[in-house]
Amino acid sequence: MNIKLSVIVPVYNVEPYIKRCLDSIIHQTYQNLEIILVDDGSTDRSGAICDEYCRADPRIQVIHKKNGGIASARKAGIVHATGEYTTNVDPDDWIETDAFAYMADKLETYAPDMLVLGYKKEYPEFVEEYRQWIADGIYVDQDFWDEFNHFIEKNSFFCQPIDMSLCNKAVKTEMWKKYQMECPESLKKNVDDAVIFPCILNSSSVYVDSKCFYHYCVRNNSILWGNHSKDYERFLILSEQLIKSYSNARYKDKIHKKFLLYKIFYHFILDTPERLISEQECLVYPEVTPKSRIIVYGKGVFANRLMQRMQELQYCTITGNIDKSDMNDIDIKELPLFDYIVIAIFNSAIVDSSVKLLKEKGIDADKLLCIEKEHLSFEKLPDKLRALWNAWV
Fold this sequence. Notes:
- This protein is about 35% helix and about 20% strand.
- The protein is of the alpha/beta class and about 400 residues long.
- The strands form two sheets. Strands 1, 2, 3, 4, 5, 6, 7, 8, 9 and 10 form a ten-stranded mixed beta sheet that branches. Strands 12-11-13-14 form a four-stranded parallel beta sheet, sandwiched between helices.
């Protein structure tokens, strides 16, 4: 296997985690790596630690730059990438020892535009594997879009047949470079989506594999967890980028337009729930009224933001917050009073398994609420996005 992999690590104030990340990269069984560390103006020892590793390993180069955000850091990294393919590892995550050997083997064998793996999400209490909806194998042109559209039609709006994370993928470097350089630097969240979405729309071949080597470590102080004043503005910027990427895509006519609509709603709901929950109405869970008592099922970013918004508005009464890790210790009969259990999870497979688990515990189906496609209409999008959609799509 002679394929050279460029590995980009954007670094900013991750001193407690960076050594674990870098050790997992330099100790890979596959050695033909170009490791590009971009210190994005760290104010702790992260930059100095990068320099230490660079002095010890000739495959590592370090770029120190003024803080500009993750999109800016990845741009600084990708312009230096010389490998046939590029992958990304975030500095507070880590990757298993055989990951790059496995990736290089598949890239050598199939030479796809993009290789897509699963990943492992590490919560404090448990680890969850996230696999792609599309079955393992190489997909070329129409075969890929037939599978992609099938899952869009069949599953809930949460379903992304291929997830939008950069970290569990290897993409041809020239393609990655093109779409990374087009990513707006003002984005602080969802920067992966702005790059992977156009990569998918312009790939003529994709290799999908269910192996999970990458460990995404969930931290409650991550930028994703907070409510920020510019969230709505950045949501509009991302949505505009997605709409224009769709309009300019090589395979625009092959992907179902509903996926673009669901992508926009995905970020609308996750990043700016205040726009969808008023003092009188919850647009995404219309069954929940100001008089409702609810238990929120889920403890991730979406559940956190949803509860925060409902509590700010005193919209309804939240009587509990549970997730999978609680289920073995819970007697359903001892749950606090509730009218509904709201499934606040942003992964279609986990939503389905959670509904099944709660039903097995004896919860009536009509007490379980998920976000349904029929609740997400074009008319509920902000005026600016409807205008952009009509102009570009």
